[in-house]
Amino acid sequence: MFLNSKLLVLLLILAxxxxxxxxxxxxxxxxxxxxxAVDEEYRYDRENLWEYINGAAELFLSYGFxxxxxxxxxxxxxxxxxxxxxxxxxxxxxxxFEREKxxxxxxxxxxxxxxxxxxxxxxxxxxxxxxxxxxxxxxxVSAELLKQAMGEVAAGLPGSDxxxxxxxxxxxxxxxxxxxxxxxxxxxxxxxxRNCMHATYQQxxxxxxxxxVMKPSKxxxxxxxRKWTLEDRPEGGLLLWRKIPxxxxxxxxGDQEQLLGVAGFEDRESAVNLLESLQK
Length: 280
Fold this sequence. Notes:
2 domains, 14 strands
């Protein structure tokens, strides 16, 4: 049975429309006011990121990198290179921002979730799943002009200006300054600990330990009994633990949506007691 030509055309139009709806809108680099885009945007994915940042590509991939969009802009004799890294998640963006941000620089408020300025040549900021670099080329750009450009780029990107909510799980009491970080994979050298937000803590008396929070993958939950000891809890939930060399015992407590973990205690009981007190 053959379709008449009008019906065939209609079906083709509907099919094309459904494909168009299924495809998400591509992200474009917002061009700050007063600046002019130079040429077209350049795009890199997981397969060719090394062409742009050869030495650091593997690091970005380990944090969940999805796409890089680069746009050069100019204003008179001054130029900026705007590099927007879509890291696939707010955790990934936070992790690479914390990994790359300089120890010196001016922290800025009101730009994305976190921002730092290194006049006269670079600004970095974090917004939702995006990690953004603003590099200066040509004539020197003032700190105020660079800050303004960063703010407008941040405002033009979609998503939340808040830090990842997982940070709220890591308490401030006892947390060592500057130790909050994100590990995309192989946290504590364990291949099954992935996408972990973590920080270093110190108890009264000098005992140092690491707290971390993770969303367990289906693979982790399915295979955890091969490497971890699982304990039944009368109140429900998951309790897993194991010992690893030079680190002591690692304990995880939570459910299938989120696990809170601790590493650095010599005995299981101390680790469990700490996690239970944090849950309460």
